[in-house]
Amino acid sequence: QVQLVESGGGLVQPGGSLRLSCAASGTIFRIYDMGWYRQAPGRQRELVAAITSGGSTNYADSVKGRFTISRDNAQNTVYLQMNSLKPEDTAVYYCNAIIQYTGSLWGQGTQVTVSS
């Protein structure tokens, strides 16, 4: 069974950094797009950043210049480097991947809290 496992969330002060990781495991032939989404309390889930299998990226305007998405295709892993964090970045962050023969798959979510 294919699954996504996230790690790297936690509590950080404003201006700090965190790096999220998401690894896909199981029988995987190919992963297409991968991305990070977030959901704050009382708000809808929103796209933070996405990356294609070829490395093309796109970002939400609110994180451009602060967050960087990358992936290691050999390890079936996607990363989100988050710098200059702000309190409004506080949310549960979810990994998503489009996987051949599986479809769209979500991770369990990891909490990111930015607070002094």
Describe this protein's structure.
The protein is 0% helix and 55% strand. The radius of gyration is 14 Å and the shape is globular. The protein has 116 residues and is an all-beta fold. It has strands at residues 3-7, 10-12, 18-25, 31-39, 46-51, 57-59, 67-72, 77-82, 91-99, 103-106, 110-114. It is built from no helices and eleven strands.
Question: Can you lay out the helices and strands and say which pair or pack?
Answer:
Layout: E1 3-7, E2 10-12, E3 18-25, E4 31-39, E5 46-51, E6 57-59, E7 67-72, E8 77-82, E9 91-99, E10 103-106, E11 110-114
Mean pLDDT across the residues is 97
Please state the oligomeric state of the protein chains shown. Answer: single chain
What's the number of helices? 0
Question: Which H/E pattern describes the elements?
Answer: EEEEEEEEEEE
Number of strands: 11
The outline comes out as globular
Structural class: mainly beta
- The level of helicity is under 10%
Rounded to the nearest angstrom, the distance between the terminal CA atoms is: 40 Å
Uncertain segments: none
The major beta sheet can be summarized as: 7 strands, mixed
Beta-sheet strand percentage?
over 45%
Radius of gyration: 14 Å
How would you describe this structure in keywords?
116 residues; mainly beta; four-stranded antiparallel β-sheet; globular
